[in-house]
Amino acid sequence: MRIYSHFVSGHLINQYLIVNDETREAVMIDAPDLDGNMIEIIEKNHFTLKALLITHSHEAHIKSLGTIYKIYNPTLYAYFEEIGGMRTRKVEDKMIIREAGLEFECLHVPGHSLDSICYRTGSAIFTGDTLQSGFISQTRALVEKELLIEGIKEKLMDYPDNTLIFPGHGPLSKIRIEKMFNQDILEANILMNLD
Questions:
Q1: pLDDT at position 194, please?
Q2: Which of 29, 60, 135, 161 is the most buried (most CB within 10 A)?
């Protein structure tokens, strides 16, 4: 398995292409933009785009859906049955997606949005806006922040410390680093210990 990381400067979003080296089939995470660089990665390497996994349906993460489907025909996966006017294969918590000879575990972690899904394959988790290096995502209300922190702790922090985090924004991280330095998670642990 090989992971290509692509930074979309217009929205400051990370987009990922996960490739099965044996089959040359690929899975894309999120659709912020389909620029020449991403097309070149796919075409120059003769990859077949089999699936597109959406972490959440905020406009910046699905902006290029129409463009992608003018060129490619991947299976579209998301929490909602329809996003951007397109039908999806609806995912649920703990569901396993098998595409391109790879397996992706779906982890539903609401808080930033109702439909926030993280996707784990091997020792990599693609977290979208849910968890980023050093902080958690923005929420609109305190109850949503508590829901998000609880979901991160229950569904992400139990993975091995060396599990890589591929966020929707910012640099890569690891579970161990977030346990040690993520202020939101550390503060939540302190408050829990005070109760």
A1: 41
A2: 29
